[in-house]
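[stage:ingest] chain + small molecule (adenosine-5'-diphosphate)
[stage:ingest] validated
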Amino acid sequence: MGLNKQHVLDALASLQDATTTENLVSLGLVRKVAACDDYVALTVAAPEDEELRRRLKTDIRSVLNEAAGQLGTEVKQLTVDFVVPTGDETPEPEQQADGRKYVDQPKTIPLKQAASSQTTTSGKATTGAPSMPGVKNVIAVGAGKGGVGKSTVSVNLAVGLARKGYAVGILDADIYGPSMPTLLGLDDLDVQLHDNMLQVMYVHGVKAMTIGKLVDPEKPLIWRGPMAHGAFKQLAEQTEWGELDYLIVDLPPGTGDVPLTMSQMLSVTGAVVVCTPQKVAQDDAVRAVRMFQQLKIEVLGIVENMSYFIGDDGKEYDIFGRGGAEIMAQRLGLPFLGAIPLNMAVRQFSDAGTPRRNFTDAGETMQRSLEKFTDQVEVQATLAGNRMGSSRPTLNVT
Ligand code: ADP
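[stage:predict] done
[stage:export] C-alpha coordinates:
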Protein backbone atom coordinates (compact mmCIF):
# COMPACT_ATOMS: atom_id res chain seq x y z
CA MET A 1 0.00 0.00 0.00
CA GLY A 2 1.31 3.44 -0.87
CA LEU A 3 1.21 6.64 1.15
CA ASN A 4 -2.16 8.37 1.16
CA LYS A 5 -3.16 11.80 2.34
CA GLN A 6 -3.94 10.65 5.89
CA HIS A 7 -0.55 8.95 6.25
CA VAL A 8 1.11 12.18 5.16
CA LEU A 9 -0.92 14.30 7.57
CA ASP A 10 -0.22 11.90 10.44
CA ALA A 11 3.48 12.05 9.68
CA LEU A 12 3.47 15.85 9.45
CA ALA A 13 1.59 16.07 12.75
CA SER A 14 4.67 14.58 14.40
CA LEU A 15 6.59 17.76 13.60
CA GLN A 16 6.15 19.66 16.85
CA ASP A 17 6.44 23.38 17.32
CA ALA A 18 9.49 24.15 19.46
CA THR A 19 7.70 26.51 21.83
CA THR A 20 4.12 25.20 22.10
CA THR A 21 2.38 21.83 22.12
CA GLU A 22 1.12 22.48 18.59
CA ASN A 23 2.41 20.80 15.46
CA LEU A 24 2.69 21.66 11.77
CA VAL A 25 -0.83 20.39 11.02
CA SER A 26 -2.63 21.70 14.11
CA LEU A 27 -1.13 25.13 13.47
CA GLY A 28 -2.81 25.09 10.07
CA LEU A 29 0.49 25.51 8.24
CA VAL A 30 -0.14 22.57 5.91
CA ARG A 31 -2.17 24.20 3.20
CA LYS A 32 -2.42 21.38 0.74
CA VAL A 33 -1.60 17.72 0.61
CA ALA A 34 -1.58 15.44 -2.38
CA ALA A 35 -0.44 11.87 -2.14
CA CYS A 36 -0.79 9.38 -4.91
CA ASP A 37 1.24 6.26 -5.62
CA ASP A 38 3.96 7.48 -3.22
CA TYR A 39 4.30 10.83 -4.96
CA VAL A 40 3.73 13.55 -2.41
CA ALA A 41 3.13 17.23 -3.07
CA LEU A 42 2.65 19.71 -0.25
CA THR A 43 2.03 23.38 0.16
CA VAL A 44 3.28 24.60 3.51
CA ALA A 45 3.15 28.07 5.02
CA ALA A 46 6.52 29.15 6.42
CA PRO A 47 8.29 32.49 6.77
CA GLU A 48 10.53 33.59 3.89
CA ASP A 49 13.66 32.39 5.63
CA GLU A 50 15.73 30.17 3.35
CA GLU A 51 17.53 28.34 6.14
CA LEU A 52 14.31 27.70 8.06
CA ARG A 53 12.52 26.41 4.97
CA ARG A 54 15.46 24.19 4.10
CA ARG A 55 15.44 22.66 7.57
CA LEU A 56 11.68 22.25 7.52
CA LYS A 57 11.86 20.46 4.18
CA THR A 58 14.54 18.12 5.54
CA ASP A 59 12.35 17.34 8.56
CA ILE A 60 9.31 16.77 6.35
CA ARG A 61 11.28 14.42 4.12
CA SER A 62 12.55 12.53 7.12
CA VAL A 63 9.11 11.94 8.74
CA LEU A 64 7.60 10.97 5.38
CA ASN A 65 10.41 8.51 4.68
CA GLU A 66 9.79 7.00 8.08
CA ALA A 67 6.04 6.72 7.46
CA ALA A 68 6.65 5.19 4.03
CA GLY A 69 9.15 2.74 5.53
CA GLN A 70 6.54 1.54 8.00
CA LEU A 71 4.24 0.80 5.07
CA GLY A 72 7.01 -1.07 3.29
CA THR A 73 7.27 1.51 0.55
CA GLU A 74 9.27 4.65 -0.18
CA VAL A 75 8.59 8.26 -1.10
CA LYS A 76 9.21 8.32 -4.84
CA GLN A 77 9.01 12.08 -5.16
CA LEU A 78 8.42 14.93 -2.76
CA THR A 79 7.56 18.45 -3.84
CA VAL A 80 7.18 21.13 -1.19
CA ASP A 81 5.86 24.51 -2.26
CA PHE A 82 6.25 27.16 0.41
CA VAL A 83 3.90 30.09 0.82
CA VAL A 84 4.14 33.01 3.22
CA PRO A 85 1.91 32.59 6.30
CA THR A 86 -0.96 35.05 6.48
CA GLY A 87 -1.12 35.05 10.28
CA ASP A 88 -4.66 33.68 10.41
CA GLU A 89 -3.86 30.05 9.69
CA THR A 90 -6.57 27.62 10.65
CA PRO A 91 -6.46 23.86 10.61
CA GLU A 92 -7.72 22.02 7.54
CA PRO A 93 -11.47 21.59 7.88
CA GLU A 94 -11.37 17.90 7.07
CA GLN A 95 -8.58 15.39 6.95
CA GLN A 96 -10.14 12.33 5.41
CA ALA A 97 -7.94 9.80 3.73
CA ASP A 98 -9.15 10.16 0.19
CA GLY A 99 -5.65 9.45 -1.03
CA ARG A 100 -6.08 11.12 -4.38
CA LYS A 101 -8.03 14.33 -4.13
CA TYR A 102 -6.31 17.61 -3.46
CA VAL A 103 -8.83 19.77 -1.66
CA ASP A 104 -11.60 19.17 0.77
CA GLN A 105 -14.48 21.12 -0.66
CA PRO A 106 -15.02 19.89 -4.19
CA LYS A 107 -16.81 22.21 -6.54
CA THR A 108 -17.56 21.92 -10.18
CA ILE A 109 -15.62 24.06 -12.56
CA PRO A 110 -17.50 27.06 -13.96
CA LEU A 111 -16.68 26.45 -17.58
CA LYS A 112 -18.79 29.41 -18.60
CA GLN A 113 -16.15 31.52 -16.92
CA ALA A 114 -13.59 30.17 -19.36
CA ALA A 115 -15.76 30.80 -22.34
CA SER A 116 -16.75 34.33 -21.34
CA SER A 117 -13.24 35.48 -20.49
CA GLN A 118 -12.43 38.01 -23.20
CA THR A 119 -9.46 39.83 -24.58
CA THR A 120 -9.16 43.54 -24.11
CA THR A 121 -9.31 45.71 -27.16
CA SER A 122 -5.53 45.68 -27.33
CA GLY A 123 -5.63 41.90 -27.57
CA LYS A 124 -3.55 41.50 -24.41
CA ALA A 125 -4.62 39.25 -21.56
CA THR A 126 -7.12 40.95 -19.26
CA THR A 127 -5.08 40.53 -16.07
CA GLY A 128 -1.80 42.36 -16.23
CA ALA A 129 -0.04 40.39 -13.45
CA PRO A 130 2.76 37.98 -14.36
CA SER A 131 0.85 34.83 -15.16
CA MET A 132 3.06 32.13 -13.68
CA PRO A 133 5.73 33.54 -11.41
CA GLY A 134 6.83 30.15 -9.99
CA VAL A 135 7.40 28.55 -13.39
CA LYS A 136 10.99 28.67 -14.61
CA ASN A 137 10.65 27.28 -18.14
CA VAL A 138 7.65 26.98 -20.41
CA ILE A 139 8.11 24.53 -23.28
CA ALA A 140 5.41 24.41 -25.93
CA VAL A 141 4.96 21.24 -27.98
CA GLY A 142 3.40 21.78 -31.39
CA ALA A 143 2.87 19.95 -34.65
CA GLY A 144 1.75 20.88 -38.12
CA LYS A 145 -1.08 18.38 -38.03
CA GLY A 146 -2.86 15.94 -35.74
CA GLY A 147 -2.00 12.32 -35.23
CA VAL A 148 1.79 12.63 -35.37
CA GLY A 149 2.10 11.86 -31.65
CA LYS A 150 2.38 15.40 -30.30
CA SER A 151 0.51 14.60 -27.08
CA THR A 152 2.39 11.34 -26.61
CA VAL A 153 5.67 13.20 -27.04
CA SER A 154 4.52 15.92 -24.57
CA VAL A 155 3.70 13.33 -21.94
CA ASN A 156 6.96 11.46 -22.41
CA LEU A 157 8.91 14.71 -22.21
CA ALA A 158 7.14 15.65 -18.98
CA VAL A 159 7.70 12.22 -17.44
CA GLY A 160 11.30 12.14 -18.74
CA LEU A 161 12.11 15.47 -17.09
CA ALA A 162 10.37 14.40 -13.87
CA ARG A 163 12.47 11.23 -13.88
CA LYS A 164 15.53 13.47 -13.93
CA GLY A 165 14.34 15.11 -10.73
CA TYR A 166 12.73 18.25 -12.08
CA ALA A 167 9.43 19.66 -10.89
CA VAL A 168 7.28 19.38 -14.00
CA GLY A 169 3.78 20.41 -14.99
CA ILE A 170 1.88 19.48 -18.13
CA LEU A 171 -0.88 21.65 -19.53
CA ASP A 172 -3.13 19.98 -22.07
CA ALA A 173 -3.96 23.03 -24.15
CA ASP A 174 -5.24 20.92 -27.04
CA ILE A 175 -8.67 22.38 -26.41
CA TYR A 176 -10.11 20.89 -29.59
CA GLY A 177 -9.14 17.30 -28.81
CA PRO A 178 -7.70 16.90 -25.32
CA SER A 179 -6.08 13.50 -24.91
CA MET A 180 -4.41 13.83 -21.50
CA PRO A 181 -7.32 12.21 -19.61
CA THR A 182 -6.47 9.02 -21.52
CA LEU A 183 -2.70 9.39 -21.82
CA LEU A 184 -2.29 10.18 -18.12
CA GLY A 185 -5.08 7.88 -16.90
CA LEU A 186 -7.09 10.62 -15.21
CA ASP A 187 -10.43 8.77 -15.12
CA ASP A 188 -10.57 8.45 -11.33
CA LEU A 189 -9.50 12.01 -10.66
CA ASP A 190 -11.55 15.18 -10.53
CA VAL A 191 -10.29 18.70 -10.95
CA GLN A 192 -11.03 20.67 -7.80
CA LEU A 193 -11.44 24.37 -7.30
CA HIS A 194 -9.92 25.98 -4.23
CA ASP A 195 -9.84 29.74 -3.60
CA ASN A 196 -10.99 30.11 -7.20
CA MET A 197 -7.90 28.28 -8.42
CA LEU A 198 -7.95 25.02 -10.36
CA GLN A 199 -5.96 22.40 -8.49
CA VAL A 200 -3.53 20.32 -10.52
CA MET A 201 -3.79 16.56 -10.63
CA TYR A 202 -0.59 14.92 -9.44
CA VAL A 203 0.13 11.87 -11.55
CA HIS A 204 3.21 9.93 -12.68
CA GLY A 205 5.41 12.48 -10.92
CA VAL A 206 4.01 15.47 -12.81
CA LYS A 207 1.35 18.08 -12.12
CA ALA A 208 -1.33 17.99 -14.78
CA MET A 209 -4.20 20.14 -15.97
CA THR A 210 -6.44 19.48 -18.94
CA ILE A 211 -9.59 20.96 -20.30
CA GLY A 212 -10.58 17.36 -20.97
CA LYS A 213 -11.57 17.04 -17.30
CA LEU A 214 -13.64 20.22 -17.34
CA VAL A 215 -15.92 19.52 -20.28
CA ASP A 216 -18.13 16.68 -21.41
CA PRO A 217 -15.75 14.20 -23.05
CA GLU A 218 -18.41 13.03 -25.51
CA LYS A 219 -19.21 16.47 -26.92
CA PRO A 220 -17.25 17.99 -29.77
CA LEU A 221 -15.32 21.04 -28.67
CA ILE A 222 -16.06 23.93 -30.94
CA TRP A 223 -14.45 27.15 -29.85
CA ARG A 224 -14.64 30.52 -31.49
CA GLY A 225 -11.49 32.63 -31.29
CA PRO A 226 -12.29 34.57 -28.08
CA MET A 227 -13.58 31.42 -26.40
CA ALA A 228 -10.40 29.54 -27.26
CA HIS A 229 -8.44 32.49 -25.89
CA GLY A 230 -10.47 32.47 -22.65
CA ALA A 231 -10.20 28.71 -22.20
CA PHE A 232 -6.42 28.73 -22.58
CA LYS A 233 -6.07 31.78 -20.35
CA GLN A 234 -8.08 30.19 -17.56
CA LEU A 235 -6.25 26.90 -17.81
CA ALA A 236 -2.83 28.52 -17.73
CA GLU A 237 -3.44 31.37 -15.34
CA GLN A 238 -6.06 30.02 -13.01
CA THR A 239 -4.28 26.76 -12.32
CA GLU A 240 -2.29 26.57 -9.14
CA TRP A 241 0.99 25.25 -10.53
CA GLY A 242 3.20 26.10 -7.56
CA GLU A 243 6.93 26.00 -8.25
CA LEU A 244 7.87 24.32 -11.52
CA ASP A 245 11.15 23.85 -13.33
CA TYR A 246 9.29 23.04 -16.54
CA LEU A 247 5.76 23.52 -17.73
CA ILE A 248 5.09 21.50 -20.87
CA VAL A 249 2.26 22.94 -22.95
CA ASP A 250 0.64 20.50 -25.38
CA LEU A 251 -0.76 22.80 -28.08
CA PRO A 252 -3.53 21.96 -30.54
CA PRO A 253 -2.20 20.85 -33.94
CA GLY A 254 -1.74 23.41 -36.68
CA THR A 255 -1.59 27.14 -36.46
CA GLY A 256 -4.42 28.83 -34.61
CA ASP A 257 -5.70 30.93 -31.74
CA VAL A 258 -4.12 29.06 -28.88
CA PRO A 259 -0.44 29.55 -29.82
CA LEU A 260 -1.21 33.22 -30.39
CA THR A 261 -2.81 33.59 -26.95
CA MET A 262 0.05 31.67 -25.38
CA SER A 263 2.63 33.97 -26.93
CA GLN A 264 0.74 37.01 -25.59
CA MET A 265 0.33 35.58 -22.12
CA LEU A 266 3.40 33.58 -21.29
CA SER A 267 7.10 33.97 -21.55
CA VAL A 268 7.79 30.78 -23.51
CA THR A 269 11.32 29.37 -23.29
CA GLY A 270 10.92 27.58 -26.59
CA ALA A 271 8.90 25.20 -28.73
CA VAL A 272 9.42 21.58 -29.70
CA VAL A 273 7.98 20.66 -33.09
CA VAL A 274 6.88 17.04 -33.55
CA CYS A 275 7.04 15.54 -37.00
CA THR A 276 6.84 12.11 -38.60
CA PRO A 277 9.32 11.19 -41.35
CA GLN A 278 7.01 11.44 -44.39
CA LYS A 279 7.34 14.32 -46.82
CA VAL A 280 3.72 15.43 -46.31
CA ALA A 281 4.22 15.63 -42.55
CA GLN A 282 7.37 17.70 -43.05
CA ASP A 283 5.54 20.33 -45.08
CA ASP A 284 3.09 20.82 -42.20
CA ALA A 285 5.90 20.88 -39.66
CA VAL A 286 7.63 23.67 -41.56
CA ARG A 287 4.44 25.71 -41.25
CA ALA A 288 4.42 25.11 -37.48
CA VAL A 289 8.07 26.21 -37.27
CA ARG A 290 7.31 29.39 -39.20
CA MET A 291 4.33 30.11 -36.94
CA PHE A 292 6.47 29.93 -33.79
CA GLN A 293 9.09 32.12 -35.41
CA GLN A 294 6.44 34.69 -36.33
CA LEU A 295 5.21 34.64 -32.74
CA LYS A 296 8.83 35.26 -31.63
CA ILE A 297 8.95 31.92 -29.86
CA GLU A 298 12.31 30.20 -30.25
CA VAL A 299 12.10 26.74 -31.80
CA LEU A 300 14.18 24.42 -29.59
CA GLY A 301 14.22 21.82 -32.33
CA ILE A 302 12.42 19.07 -34.18
CA VAL A 303 11.75 15.55 -32.96
CA GLU A 304 10.96 12.71 -35.35
CA ASN A 305 8.20 10.55 -33.86
CA MET A 306 7.26 7.16 -35.33
CA SER A 307 10.71 7.32 -36.88
CA TYR A 308 10.91 3.58 -37.45
CA PHE A 309 9.03 0.52 -36.26
CA ILE A 310 10.41 -1.95 -33.76
CA GLY A 311 8.82 -5.33 -34.40
CA ASP A 312 8.25 -8.10 -31.89
CA ASP A 313 11.35 -9.70 -33.41
CA GLY A 314 13.31 -6.69 -32.12
CA LYS A 315 14.20 -5.67 -35.70
CA GLU A 316 13.85 -2.09 -36.91
CA TYR A 317 11.74 -1.34 -39.99
CA ASP A 318 11.88 2.03 -41.76
CA ILE A 319 8.22 2.27 -42.65
CA PHE A 320 7.89 5.98 -43.20
CA GLY A 321 11.40 6.78 -44.44
CA ARG A 322 13.40 7.37 -41.29
CA GLY A 323 15.54 10.50 -41.14
CA GLY A 324 13.24 12.85 -43.03
CA ALA A 325 12.72 15.16 -40.08
CA GLU A 326 16.43 15.32 -39.35
CA ILE A 327 17.14 16.45 -42.89
CA MET A 328 14.37 19.02 -42.58
CA ALA A 329 15.81 20.30 -39.28
CA GLN A 330 19.20 20.69 -40.95
CA ARG A 331 17.64 22.53 -43.85
CA LEU A 332 15.90 24.95 -41.45
CA GLY A 333 19.03 25.37 -39.34
CA LEU A 334 17.32 23.92 -36.27
CA PRO A 335 18.54 21.38 -33.72
CA PHE A 336 17.39 17.79 -34.24
CA LEU A 337 16.11 16.57 -30.87
CA GLY A 338 16.05 12.87 -31.66
CA ALA A 339 14.11 10.00 -33.18
CA ILE A 340 11.41 8.15 -31.26
CA PRO A 341 10.48 4.78 -32.74
CA LEU A 342 6.99 3.42 -33.25
CA ASN A 343 6.38 0.64 -30.83
CA MET A 344 3.34 -1.35 -29.81
CA ALA A 345 4.08 -1.09 -26.08
CA VAL A 346 4.04 2.72 -26.22
CA ARG A 347 0.64 2.65 -27.87
CA GLN A 348 -0.60 0.28 -25.19
CA PHE A 349 0.85 2.27 -22.28
CA SER A 350 -0.58 5.46 -23.80
CA ASP A 351 -4.06 3.96 -24.02
CA ALA A 352 -3.71 2.60 -20.49
CA GLY A 353 -2.53 5.95 -19.11
CA THR A 354 0.71 4.54 -17.70
CA PRO A 355 3.42 6.62 -19.43
CA ARG A 356 6.21 5.88 -16.95
CA ARG A 357 6.23 2.34 -18.31
CA ASN A 358 7.49 3.71 -21.65
CA PHE A 359 10.79 4.24 -19.84
CA THR A 360 10.92 0.84 -18.20
CA ASP A 361 8.85 -1.74 -20.07
CA ALA A 362 8.89 -0.71 -23.73
CA GLY A 363 12.33 -2.04 -24.57
CA GLU A 364 15.82 -0.66 -24.33
CA THR A 365 15.74 1.17 -27.67
CA MET A 366 12.61 3.05 -26.70
CA GLN A 367 13.99 3.95 -23.28
CA ARG A 368 17.24 5.22 -24.77
CA SER A 369 15.37 7.24 -27.43
CA LEU A 370 13.10 8.89 -24.88
CA GLU A 371 15.97 9.67 -22.53
CA LYS A 372 18.07 11.10 -25.34
CA PHE A 373 15.19 13.25 -26.51
CA THR A 374 14.58 14.50 -22.94
CA ASP A 375 18.29 15.32 -22.56
CA GLN A 376 18.31 17.23 -25.85
CA VAL A 377 15.27 19.31 -24.88
CA GLU A 378 16.85 20.03 -21.50
CA VAL A 379 20.05 21.23 -23.19
CA GLN A 380 18.27 23.34 -25.80
CA ALA A 381 15.91 24.85 -23.19
CA THR A 382 18.86 25.77 -21.01
CA LEU A 383 20.58 27.46 -23.95
CA ALA A 384 17.37 29.26 -24.92
CA GLY A 385 16.79 30.24 -21.27
CA ASN A 386 20.30 31.68 -21.09
CA ARG A 387 19.65 33.64 -24.26
CA MET A 388 16.44 34.95 -22.69
CA GLY A 389 18.47 36.02 -19.67
CA SER A 390 17.12 33.50 -17.21
CA SER A 391 19.26 30.99 -15.41
CA ARG A 392 19.33 27.22 -15.59
CA PRO A 393 16.55 25.55 -13.61
CA THR A 394 17.54 24.47 -10.15
CA LEU A 395 16.64 21.17 -8.63
CA ASN A 396 13.98 21.41 -5.93
CA VAL A 397 12.75 17.87 -5.91
CA THR A 398 14.18 14.73 -4.43
P1 ADP B 1 -1.46 13.88 -31.64
O1 ADP B 1 -1.36 14.54 -30.29
O2 ADP B 1 -0.39 14.37 -32.58
O3 ADP B 1 -2.81 13.95 -32.25
P2 ADP B 1 -1.23 11.40 -30.17
O4 ADP B 1 -0.09 11.67 -29.26
O5 ADP B 1 -2.61 11.47 -29.61
O6 ADP B 1 -1.13 12.33 -31.45
O7 ADP B 1 -0.95 9.97 -30.84
C1 ADP B 1 -1.84 9.38 -31.76
C2 ADP B 1 -1.80 7.87 -31.56
O8 ADP B 1 -0.53 7.36 -31.91
C3 ADP B 1 -2.05 7.43 -30.14
O9 ADP B 1 -2.81 6.25 -30.15
C4 ADP B 1 -0.68 7.14 -29.60
O10 ADP B 1 -0.70 6.14 -28.59
C5 ADP B 1 0.04 6.64 -30.82
N1 ADP B 1 1.47 6.92 -30.81
C6 ADP B 1 2.07 8.13 -30.84
N2 ADP B 1 3.42 8.00 -30.85
C7 ADP B 1 3.68 6.67 -30.81
C8 ADP B 1 4.87 5.88 -30.80
N3 ADP B 1 6.07 6.44 -30.85
N4 ADP B 1 4.73 4.52 -30.74
C9 ADP B 1 3.51 3.96 -30.72
N5 ADP B 1 2.36 4.64 -30.74
C10 ADP B 1 2.44 5.98 -30.78
